[in-house]
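HUMAN:
Just now I want nothing more than another pair of eyes on a protein record. I would be glad if you read both lines and explained how they fit together. I have put the entry right below:
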Amino acid sequence: MNYVTVDAYRIGEFPFWFHQTWTTSLQLCLSLVILFHAVGLATFAAMAIILLTVLCNVPLAKLQHRFQTKLMTAQDERLKRCGEALVNMKVLKLYAWETHFRTVIEKLREVEYTSLRAAQLLKAYNGILFWSSPVLVSVATFGACYLLKVPLHANNVFTFVATLRLVQEPVRSIPDVIGVVIQAKVAFARIERFLEAPELQHIQIHGTMAYVSQTAWIQTGSIRCSLVKDLDLLPYGDRTEIGERGVNLSGGQKQRIQLARALYQDADIYLLDDPFSAVDAHTATSLFNEYVMEALARKTVFLVTHQVDFLPAFDAVLIDNPNTSTLKLIGVYLLIGVGSTVFLLTRGLSTVILNMQSSRSLFSQLLNSLFRAPMSFYDSTPLGRILSRVSSDLSIVDLDVPFWFILAVGATSNNYANLGVLAVITWQVLFVSIPMIYLAIRLQKYYFSSAKEFMRINGTTKSYVANHLAESVAGAITIRAFRQEERFFAKNLDLIDKNASPFFHSFTANEWLIQRLETMSAAVLASAALCMVLLPPGTFSSVSIQNQNTLANYIISVERLNQYMHIPSEAPEVIKENRPPPSWPSVGKVEICDLKIRYRSEAPLVLKWISCTFQGGHKIGIVGRTGSGKTTLIGALFRLVEPAGGKIVVDGIDITKIGLHDLRSRFGIIPQDPTLFSGTVRYNLDPLAQHTDQEIWEVLGKCQLREAIQEKEEGLDSLVVEDGSNWSMGQRQLFCLGRAILRRSRVLVLDEATASIDNATDLILQKTIRTEFADCTVITVAHRIPTVMDCTMVLAIKDGRLVEYDEPMQLMKREDSLFGQLVKEYWSHSQSSESQ
C-alpha cells in the first residue's frame, strides 16, 4: 500500500522539481559572469563559498538518503500493522485487544519518529546552509574586495547585491530540490526491488477456468443460485449496494454470490475451495446438487472440501498429505550574517522540534479515534479511504507541511519588512505597494477557491486507488483464475488517471496564479520606474504568494486527518463507577429482555423483540437459516452494535451499564473467521503476555497443536505470517480455541466456529470444549446439526425473530418446529450421500 500512496506520490512530485536542478545551475553561472564584471577577482571568493556550501552538503545528502530509506522502511512496518488492525478491527474488539494493538502501533510510530527526526534535522541543516549562503557570499566577496583593493562604489555594489538577490531564491530552493530528489530516489529503489521480486511461473491450462475461494471475496458494488429468498429480503434486490468486503451480507450470502459469479463465467474448469462450509446443511446440499451436479455436470470440477458426504459423487478423490571604514562596514555586515545564520539555525531546529510534537499529537489522536470508532464506521467506510489518511496524508504532514509553513511565513515577513523599511525612507512607494497587495490578495482568494478543491478531490480519488488496490490484492487468486488481470489493471490505471488529474491541475492553477502575479508586478514596476530604482528586486516577488499557496494545498492533508480525529466514539472502555467485580461473570446466566437491534438509526430492525434466558452452565445452540440474525445476536452480546431497545443482563449486571473493555475481556469467543496476526505462535495465543510458556504448551496439547509446533525448530517462536496463511484453516481455528482456553471465561461464544474445518478438527474442538468448559455457559451458533444436538437448549431464529426456544428433543417432537426441519434436512442429506 505504501508503494502506491506514498512512493508513487514522491515520484510524481519529481518531474515538477527536476527543472530546478538545471535552471538553478544556469542562473548561478550567469550570475558569476555578471559578478566578475562587477567586482573582478573577488568573484572567486564568492565561488569558493558556493563550492564550500555544495561540498558541505554532500555528506548531509548521503545521510539524508540513508535516514529517508530507514524512514520508509519504518513507515512500511507501521502501515502494515495499521492495515492488519483496521482489517481485523471486529476481532480486536471481540477480544478487547484494541489497547494492546494501539500500543504496538504507537511503538512502531516511535521507531518511525527516530528516522523522521534525523531526516528532518538534516533537511533543516541543509536549509540553514543554503539560506545563509547569500549573506556569507556577500561577506566573503566584500572582504576579498577590501584585500584586493577593489573599489566598492555604488555602481558595482548595487550590481553585486542586485545580482545576488536575483539568485537568492533559486539557491534557497536547493535544499527542497535535494529533498525531493532523495525522496524520489528512495521511492524508485523501493519500487524497483518490488518489481524485481520473483513472479509466479505460468501453468498450462487447456480451457477457461473459474474459481471460488474458501474465504468469500466480495467487491464493493451491487448484486446482479439459491439467492432468490435473500434478494427478496434486500431492500433493492440485486441492485442493493454492497459495502467493502461484503460487510452487509452474511457469510452464506457472500459465498453464494461467489458461486453465482463463477457460474456466470461459463468456464471449462471450476476450482471450488470449500465453498459450502459457510452455509447450513440444507443449503449446502441444495447448492451442491443444483450447482455442482446439475449446472456444472459437463464441466471439470476440482472441489477442496472437508465435507466427506459430497465425495461419493466425484470421479476421483485426492487426499492431501500434510508433510564606516570599509573594513568596519564589512565587519558590521559579517555580524549581521552571523546573526542571520544563528537565527536560521534556531528557526530550523525549532521547526523540527515543533513538527515532531504536532505530528505525534496528530497521530495519537487519529489512532485513538480509529480504535474507538464503532463497527458501523468500518462497515460503511472503505479501507482504502482510512489507509490513505494514515499513509500519504500523514507523510505530507510529517515531511512537507512544517518546512512550507516556515517558507511561507519567512517569505511573507521578508516582503512586508522590505516594504516597511522602504515606506519609511521613500513614502511614495506606498502608491505602488498598496494596490499591489490588494490585487495579490484578490487573485489569491480567487485561486484558493479552486486549488483547495483540487487537493480535496485528489485526496478522495487517492483513497479510491488505495481501496481498489487492497481489494485486488485480497482477491488476487480469484482475479487470476478468471483471467481478469487486464480488466483490473485497466481499472487501476483509470483510477490513477482520475487521481492524477486534480493533482496536476493544482500545479497548473499554481502556475496560472504565478504568471498573473509576475505580469502584474512587471506592469506596476514599469509604470513606477522612479520609485523602483530605490526598491530591491524581489520586493514584489511572487515567491511569497507561491509559498502560501503550496502550504494551503498541503494543509488539506491536515484537514483530512482532522476529519478522522473526530469520529463518533463507542461507549467508554471503562466506567469507573460501574466496574463489575473481578470474578464477574461467576455463574454465566444471560437474560435477554425484549431485545431490538438495528445497524443505523434509519435502518429497519434486524432483531425484533428477542426474549429468553440462558441459565449458567447451560450449553445453548442458536440455529436458523443464513441471514436470519444469529451473528447479530452475538454482536449484541459483545456490544458491537448497541440495542435499539431492550437489554441483556449477565449475572445481574446490565451490559450497557459497564465499560466495553470490562465486558468484552470477560467473555471468551471463537469467531466465525479464525484470525491470526503476523508474529509468532506465542504472540498469537497470548498477545498480552499474561501466561507462561508452560501454560501455553499445556493449552497447545489440549488443542492437538503441540506436535505440529514441536516439529518446527523455533517452537513457540515459529513464524505466523499476515492472516496466518502459512497455517491451515483448521489449525487457525484451533489457535482460536487455545486463546479461549487461556482466557478461562465463564461465558464462551462459538460463532459458526466449525463451518470451515473438517470433521476431525470439529471433533477435537467439540471434545475440548466439553472437557475444558464443562461448567461454563457455552453459546454456539452452528450450521452443523450434530454440533447443537447435545446442547441443553436450542434457540431458533427466523427473519430476526425468536420462533422457538426449548430442549432439542422437545423441539424435534413438534411438527412445525424450525429446528426439527433443519434436523430432518441434515439427516436426509447424510443418508442420500451414504447411499451414493
